[in-house]
Amino acid sequence: MQTMADDPQVEDDKPVSKVAIIDENYCTQKSQEFIVLKKMTKFQTNAVFQVFDVDQNLLLQADGLKWLLHRTFLMKDSHDSPIVTLHEARITDKRRWDVYEGDSTDAPDHMFKVQRTSAFQVNARLDILFLDNPNPEEGRFQIKKDDASSNTAAMYQGSRIIARVSRPD
User: Fold this and answer.
1) What is the CATH architecture assignment of 33-116?
2) What residue spans in the chain does CATH classification 2.40.160.200 cover?
3) Which pTM was predicted?
4) Is-contact 54 35, C-beta < 8 A?
5) How confident is the model at residue 1 (pLDDT cuts 50, 70, 90)?
6) pLDDT: is 141 or 30 the higher one?
7) Phi/psi class of residue 86: alpha, beta or left (left: φ > 0; alpha: ψ in -120 to 50)?
8) How much is the pLDDT for 5?
C-alpha cells in the first residue's frame, strides 16, 4: 500500500496533501510503502491482518471474526489500542461494511459506510459514505481497481488520487 499525491506519478520525496479519513495521526507527508500480511486460523473462522512499514515495524493489526451472516474486524494500532471496528452486513446486495469508532458497534460511534458502487461489478469499485456529509458528491471518496486483471487499485477524493494499493503478482 502506498500513499500518493494529486498526481499518481509523484516522486517519493515530494510532500503530499493530507487527507484524513479516520484520523490525522494516520496520515503521512510523503509516499510510503507498507507490507500487509494475512493469517488465517483453524477452520478459516478468524483472520488477522498485519500492516508493517518497510523496516518491519508493526503499524496496524486487524483481528477478524467470521459469523454466518457477517464478519467483524477490529483494527488496532501498534500499542494494541482500538482504532475502528469494521462490521460487514452480508444480506445487502452491495456488500456493505459499517465502520465504527474504537471497539464499538453502537449507533453514536458509526463513522462511515463502505459499499460496492453496484451489486454486479467486473472491476471492483467501492464508495465510502460519510454519515454527516451534507453534500456527498463534494467530499466523495471511492476505491477503484485499475482493471480486472490488475493487482492495483487507487483511492480517490473526487477525481484526485490520494492513495494507491499494489499487490505483488
Assistant:
1) Beta Barrel (2.40)
2) 33-116
3) 0.74
4) yes
5) very low
6) 141
7) beta
8) 38
Dihedral angle, C-alpha 31, 137, 22, 82, nearest 10 °:
-130
* Average pLDDT for 103-127: 82
Q: How many whole angstroms separate alpha carbon 70 and alpha carbon 51?
A: 23
Average pLDDT, the chain: 76
- The three grid cell numbers given for residue 114, joined into one nine-digit string: 463502505
Report how far residue 55's alpha carbon sits from residue 115's, in angstroms, rounded to the nearest whole number.
Answer: 33
Residue 99: is its pLDDT beyond 60? yes
One-character DSSP codes across the chain: -EE--SSTT--TTS------SS-GGG--SS--BEEEEEEE-GGG-EEEEEEEETT--EEEEEEEEE-SS-EEEEEEETTS-EEEEEEEETTSTT-EEEEEETT--SGGGEEEEEEESSSS-SS-EEEEEETT-S-TTTT-EEEEES-TT-SEEEEEETTEEEEEEE---
- Look up cell 471497539; give the residue: 103
Asked if the model's pLDDT at residue 41 lies above 80, the reply is no
Q: What per-residue confidence (pLDDT) applies to 167?
A: 72
